Amino acid sequence: MKSAGVSNIGFHRKRNEDCYYIDEAQGIFIICDGMGGHRGGDVASRLAVHTIRDHLDLTGAEDLASVMTQAVRAANLAIYKAGNADEALREMGTTATAAIIRDGCLTVAHVGDSSLYHFHAGVLTKITKDHTLAEQMKADHIFTNGDLPISSYSHILTRAVGVEPEVNIDIYQHELSEGDWILLCSDGLTDLVTDEEIAGFMAAASEPESTALSLVNAALEKGGHDNITVIVVCV
Ligand code: CA
Q1: What ranges in 17-99 are assigned the alpha helix state H?
Q2: Is 147 exposed, middle or buried (0-12, 13-18, 19+ CB in 10 A)?
């Protein structure tokens, strides 16, 4: 397995509120995209990454889904408590997309609108579902709200880590084949670079680092209005 991560502040934000973590030896990959006023966003995403990492003790672990659920719950509680303890951090929160790849199996824990994609045999599949109001409206077969298209609601999260004392966590498990690619990214990429374009980069990929850089550069060329973070893994 080979992997690379790249995070870029973009052209318009004062801080990079994305945070990522790679432990290739253990097959652990995490992206968190924080939100909240003042310092809240970057505090939340960093606290989430550190708490999830510290709770992913995989020694002898058999039920990875349960280990990951506990890890994200611990992050949720840590952020919720820190937010309540400091006025400047109140209501901070973060997305969390965490993956473990081991023994040919991918386990993902996911909250929010960062994304995880699987590229297998030339086909790109988005594994995670965004927890946004736009997706919720689609699921409820609501396609407009007066003059506003539902895409106007694509930035309103219906779930985030750290905003409430409890959080619902989606878990996905998939078999992987050697030569498959996995992409984790924040919405700074997916807002600007389409799935078709991402598939093109993955099809052309020869190694993770140059692919990660190409993806980030593509978002920068289209304006880079948000922080952009990607992790590319070749299984
Ligand atoms: Ca973002």
Answers
A1: 40-55, 64-85
A2: exposed
Is the pLDDT reported for residue 129 higher than 90?
Answer: yes
Give me the residues near ligand 1 (ion), CB cutoff below 5 Å.
33, 186-188, 226
Q: Can you tell me which residue has the tokens 């990454």?
A: 49
pLDDT, residue 67, reads: 96
Task: Go through 76-106 and write b for each residue having 16 or more CB atoms within 10 A of its CB, e for each that does not.
Answer: bbbbbebbeeeeebeebbbbbbbbbbeeeeb
**Residue-wise pLDDT tens digits, 221-231:** 999 999 999 99
pLDDT tens per residue, range 23-41: 999 999 999 999 987 778 9
Q: What is the CATH number of domain 2-234?
A: 3.60.40.10
pTM: 0.95
CA 155 – ligand 1 centroid, Å: 9
What distance in angstroms lies between residue 172's CA and the mean position of ligand 1's atoms?
Answer: 22
